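ARCHIVE RECORD
Type: protein–small molecule complex
Small molecule: iron/sulfur cluster
Source of inputs: curated submission
Record status: active
Notes field left blank by submitter.
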Amino acid sequence: MENRSVTVRPDNCCGCGACRAVCPVGAVSMTEDEYGFVMPKTDLARCIGCGRCVSVCSFLTPEKYLSGSLPIKAYAAVNRDEKLLKRSSSGGVFAGAARAVLNSGGAVYGAAMGKDFSVKHIGIDSENSLRRIQGSKYTQSDTSEVFSSVKEKLASGRRVLFSGTPCQAAALKAYLGDGHEGLYIIDLVCHGVSSNRLFKEDIACLSRRYGSPVRAVLFRSKRRPRGAWGELVLESGIKEYSPLTSPYYYYYYAAGSILRDSCHHCPYAQRKRVGDMTVGDFWRIETLFRSGGMNTGKGVSCLMVNTPKGMELLDMFREQFMLREVGYEEIVKRNGNLRGHCKADKKRDKLLELYRRKGYGAVASYYRTNERKNVAILKLRGIIPTRLKTALKRKLLK
Ligand SMILES: Cc1cc2nc3c(=O)[nH]c(=O)nc-3n(C[C@H](O)[C@H](O)[C@H](O)COP(=O)(O)OP(=O)(O)OC[C@H]3O[C@@H](n4cnc5c(N)ncnc54)[C@H](O)[C@@H]3O)c2cc1C
Ligand code: SF4
Ligand code: SF4
Ligand code: SF4
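STRUCTURE (tokenized, with ligand):
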């Protein structure tokens, strides 16, 4: 029989798993490639050639899932609830929206990290579980099992909030098709993801390095007022690190050295958005306005309302927020992933090849031998406040 199943190349597959979810005969499975990146694999002996896996693939037809125009409104946003804000990566917009949907009897879907550091999307029905899906996990989250669950909840008449990367949001839209009144989608501004396998091996490596088991990882800790500081919770205590100066995974993730190939060809890294609402970090907000009644010390989100439904969602929780309307271009200026996808670092191929041939230990020792100078420069840069850096730049350019 002619092969009508989905054929994938690493650069045009985000690993969303929608093809697996729609296959009527279970011929598609999600498997890991040599770097741990999840890819679909078709069992041709089972395939009946229906072509559903091809038509559901949103990565091939992004324009169908992007909004037709730019966001209706854009804001700087901070959740007034200190507890929710502390557990959030930036200004806690997701938690505010999630609480509103849960209080109206709805269900919320987001990424949760397991005890074994695997990351997958789960659905929750009560605020008691909200903590599990708060916070950014900078590794791929497995969505392939939640599509049907979202569909069932919507069919039962409940509201559903789904939050994820733009490619995951597009995949859900493609899977569900049009006409779901109760569905609200939040997509994130997205730098990209690396493989969950590399992340897990990093944890094992750090545990050996510090001589203590790792109990938890927070990519975005709120102990530090600014920047994207992470936190490694070891049995022997807490280690803090910034992505630019941390060892191995977080450093190479931030540098674009170990991202999924599709992230370097991402059609969703742009001004037009997939979700009803988009959230991200409001970087360098201090260069736009001094706090102006807004507490910016514990994280500020940029919040874009993309559709009338997004406005309806915002109206459900705006009371609990400090909101300040801003021009969308002010946000775009400060957030490269709204202007284009992350460029692959020139070391990417070398590092992945090193991993494939010699394992994660070789990546770690490459880091120790080759990145010391870069890390020292980045540490130094991190000490200089942004205002001073801008002033220095202006002076030098005069
Ligand atoms: C992989 C990734 C890359 C990102 N890159 C950027 C960037 O380049 N620039 C920028 O401004 N912001 C980026 N963000 C968004 C940022 O980290 C915050 O998530 C965002 O500012 C919202 O924060 P919050 O305080 O509202 O909510 P939070 O509670 O911090 O989290 C928001 C939502 O993110 C979801 N989420 C967490 N991890 C994953 C994952 N692995 N896959 C899918 N969904 C996930 C959670 O389920 C939750 O719904 C990224 C997020 C992720 C997950
Ligand atoms: S549907 Fe998703 S997992 Fe399947 S081929 Fe397309 S992008 Fe890849
Ligand atoms: S063509 Fe149909 S049967 Fe074959 S893998 Fe795709 S969805 Fe499954
Ligand atoms: S960069 Fe694009 S392809 Fe990669 S995770 Fe983000 S939305 Fe998906």
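CURATOR ANNOTATION: The CA atoms of residues 270 and 338 lie 4 Å apart.
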